[in-house]
Amino acid sequence: MPSIELSEHDPDALDRASELLSGRRTAVLTGAGISTDSGIPAYRGAGAPARVNPMTIQTYLGDEAARRRYWMGGHLGYRRFTSPDPNGGHLALAALEEHGDVTGVITQNVDGLHLRAGSKRVIELHGTMHRVHCLDCGQVFDRRAIAEQIDELNPWVTVPENIVLNPDGDVTPESSEGFVVPPCTVCGGMLKPEVVYFGEFVPVGRFRLSESLVHGSDALLVAGTSLTVNSGIRIIERARRRDMPLVIINREPTRADAWADEVIAGGTTAVLTALATRFGAL
To answer: Annotated catalytic residue: which of 90, 114, 126, 133?
Structure first.
């Protein structure tokens, strides 16, 4: 089990969190901070790369050059983004679900690592990088099939050995001149990765599933998110309305710290592993 250094963690906070969650069916909300130990960078916090112009839905739909850069950068980073394995934090949550302590995971991440770790009930609030859909006819494609299509359309594109991966799985290409964006093979329409861009709303049905998970639980555990994005705060608000115990694990301060019953300022891998061990799930 990863060690928990006293300089970084308050052992009493871990005890109090264990007491709050013990015997309660707990819903979990996770963010980028749970995947950093797998090598995927976070958007915010210490060491996070700067994102000057993140892709917005308005830019994606209205700027062909920006869309071409986005697809080329995504293609260059896709294989590396999908190669990391789940870490101890992901595995601990899967074990807690199997043990009956966790009711499910609502994640802001698009990396699919919770599912690969074995979690059964996972709501991918912001979508997934593993699927692509057509904005015109609605056809859904496996991202691997689109990657093969890109290779065929752009045989001159090679992936550099040393790439700097961005938090959303892409890299910043030096140039996208001449890059051909694949069309939908069904209708020829515009393809889009099945992720929620900045300026885009979380699908209503997906958010309702998240609400249902929270309403069917007795406590909420937040792990690895600063809660800067409003979708996460909306989940917190649903828990507050029900007066549910709230425990937050994050290295950096979050927008909801003042509302939490317990805050553990530390890494998710060590803390979640410790909780799962205390509950007998590991």
So the answer is: 126
CB 248 within 8 A of CB 256: yes
Read off the pLDDT of each residue in 20-30 and give the average, rounded to a whole number. 98
Residue 126 annotated as catalytic: yes
Total Cβ atoms within 10 A of residue 266: 19
Q: How far is CA 89 from CA 30, 119, 236, 269, in A?
A: 10, 11, 21, 4
Question: Quick one: pLDDT at residue 41?
Answer: 78
The closest of 203, 207, 195, 174 to 76, measured between CA atoms, is 174
Asked if residue 13 lies in contact with residue 262, where contact means CB atoms within 8 angstroms, the answer is yes
**Tally of helices (H runs) and strands (E runs) in the chain:** 9, 9
For domain 48-83+127-195, the CATH superfamily is SIR2/SIRT2 'Small Domain' (3.30.1600.10)
Sheet strands side by side (includes 102-107) = 122-124, 102-107, 26-30, 219-223, 246-249, 262-264
Nearest Cα to 100, choosing from 203, 18, 24?
24
Mean of all residue pLDDT scores within the chain: 89
**Which pTM value belongs to this model?**
0.90
> Whole-angstrom Cα distance, residue 217 to residue 244?
9
pLDDT for 94: 98
The tens digit of pLDDT for each residue in 216-263 reads 999 999 999 999 989 999 999 999 999 999 999 999 999 999 999 999
Q: Which CATH number fits domain 1-40+86-126+202-282: 3.40.50.1220, 3.40.50.300, 3.30.450.20, 3.30.70.100?
A: 3.40.50.1220
Q: What angle do CA 2, 84, 233 make, to 5 degrees?
A: 75
